[in-house]
Every structure is written in C-alpha cells, then in structure tokens.
Design goal:
Elements lengths: L2 E2 L3 H11 L4 E6 L4 H7 L5 E7 L7 E3 L5 E3 L1 E3 L2 E2 L19 H10 L1 H7 L8 E7 L7 H14 L5 E5 L26 H15 L4
C-alpha cells in the first residue's frame, strides 16, 4: 500500500493558512517519514512531534513482492530506501530491526536521496526507545538531531534505553493490537518514556 499526505491534510492546512494558524503535527513510527517530508514545504507547519521516528523514507512491497515507494507527495513517489531481498527473521514473533539495519547499509546512495530534510522544520520533538525491535528508532532520532545541529538547530530528543517501539503517554493504556511482531521494551519502560515525552508535548499542544 502506498500512503499519501493528500488531499485531506492539504485541505486542513489550507483552512488553517487562511486563518493564520500555528500548526503542529504528531506522527508515530512508519507514519513519520511522509508528514515530516511534507512539513518543510509548508511554512505554516511550526512543529513536528515524532514517536519512534525515521530519518529516511522507507520503501514497501506490493502483493507480488515487488519494490515500490511507500509514500507519494503531490502525486510523485517519495525517494526511499529499499529492503534487501535476502533477509529472514531470526525469531518468532519476528523482530524487524535487523531488516532495517541491513537494508540501510546495503543502499548508501538511496539513503542519501531518501533522507528527510528536517533542517527545514522549525521545531522537532523526537521520542524513541533504545530497545525498539521494530526498527532502530533511537539511532534514527540521533541522526536527525545531528543533521539539524549541523544547520544550527536544536532538537528535543527524549529517549529511554529500555523502552521499545511504543511509548505510553500518561493516561493511556498499553496498546496490544497491530501486526504480530517483537516491539521491545516493557510496560514500565514504555510508560516512563511516555511520561518524559509528555513534559515536552504538553508545552506545545
């Protein structure tokens, strides 16, 4: 499936633009690359809050297993990092972290083109767990922060070495749905990460 940030997102953005709104967006995991990629194109987007972020856009596969972009923007495919073909999970349920790590190493040129220009976003808040077993979101977050620092920009980085893919915000119940996979962390660590993140999020929303 290919994701889009249109048309509803654009309609909402246009509505706010006419009213001089200050727009903040929040996204989690694989939802992060496209909205973050799109955000810098609209100066009205002031802040991006990303849970378990990625610094690059990743590809997808169709029903036939063929490589394809996961996202489009303005009707055009977003450059992406493709998955390698020879990877198989070593656990059951599977952890996909190794797939992302190996795919990145295998395609340095694709990484260059697929890197999200986060230096064009005013304020960025990143929340990531060091024990994320879906993909290495903490490493992604550090790369985003480093890129922005090279451009003279600060980044709010909230991490917990023992948290996994899903932070639990104050008042939330732990999520149990979704695809069957290893997500890492523990309820206590995920909740601790969410509480630390909420300190910064509550100052924005």
């Amino acid at each position: 499936m290919t994701g889009r940030f249109e048309p509803s997102g654009c309609e909402n953005l246009a509505w706010c633009t006419r009213r001089s709104c200050r727009i903040q967006t929040g996204h989690a995991s694989c939802q992060t690359p496209q909205p973050a990629s799109a955000s810098w194109r609209w100066p009205d987007v002031h802040t991006v809050i990303a849970f378990a972020p990625s610094d690059v856009a990743w590809g997808a596969r169709n029903e036939l297993g063929e490589r394809r972009p996961h996202w489009t923007l303005a009707g055009k495919p977003v450059p992406y990092v493709p998955f390698i073909d020879d990877w198989h999970p070593s656990s059951e349920p599977p952890s996909y972290r190794g797939l992302y790590e190996r795919s990145r190493v295998a395609a340095p040129e694709a990484v260059r083109f697929a890197t999200i220009p986060t230096e064009r976003i005013d304020k960025v808040v990143l929340i990531a767990g060091g024990d994320d077993q879906v993909w290495p979101s903490e490493q992604h977050a550090l790369l985003i922060a480093e890129r922005r620092k090279r451009h003279g920009l600060d980044t709010v980085l909230v991490t917990d070495d023992h948290a996994g893919h899903r932070a639990i915000l104050p008042g939330e119940a732990a999520m149990t749905g979704g695809l069957r996979m290893v997500r890492g962390g523990s309820p206590d660590a995920d909740r601790r990460l969410g509480e630390a993140a909420w300190i910064h999020i509550s100052q924005i929303i």
